[in-house]
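User: Assemble these into one structure.

Assistant: Restating your components, then the assembled model:
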Amino acid sequence: MLNDAINEKLIQINLNVSNWKDAIRKSMDPLITENYVDQNYVEEIINTTAANGPYYVITKGIAIPHASSKYGAYKNGISITSLQHSVCFNHPVNDPVKLIIGLSSINGEEHLRNITKLVTLLEDSNFLNIVYTAKNAKEVYDYILNYKEGGEEKYV
Amino acid sequence: MYKILIACRAGIGSSLILKIKLNQIIEQNKLPVILEHASLDEVSSFHGDGIITLLDVANELKEKNPNLKVVGIKDVMNKDELFEKLKSLIE
């Protein structure tokens, strides 16, 4: 199921960014190019962050920027971006961020399944290892394509 | 059964992951908890035993809902933290 939401074009490896805003824009860029979200969606994430803090830095070193679909999301998608140098989001405990997973959701069952699979990947140290050491997007995408796991709908 | 609400800003990302992780803990520890899920705007109409959210939203929710127990999670992938904070709402 995740295979529908992720494709190789949505994965970027060792991206250079100058600060958190740059990191958000560049990590969401493939979702704009591939027509998952529009520019307004990304600006909403940046504006909300500036006003309320980085609500999507959910664990050590990992950010999952997203906004409500009403700001311009058109299909369910996930972008994956590893950073060449980690960047500070001004989060009280989970800085610095090295991996950014951009979410686009039009809600519904498919999005729930995608997020459940995403959790399985984030629990998988092999996956994180590959994301942080991959030389290109294909290595990460191949790992996701070949990923086998059970019970993915159990916890939602 | 205790009724706990999970809330985050948009209701589509952090809170869904939080729900999945908390359900793992509830199942593994056989805790008498039912989770509900909402965006921030829907919190005020919730009647239950407590709210779990992310750290940055917790203070805002406490101010707006002084009669509800609210805990903020620092790291959604940290099972120990999730277990302790979930327990604090049902004790």
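Chain A touches chain B at residues 48, 52-56, 58-60, 64, 66-69, 91-94, 103, 105, 107, 111-112, 115-116, 118-119, 122-123, 155-156 (CB under 8 Å).
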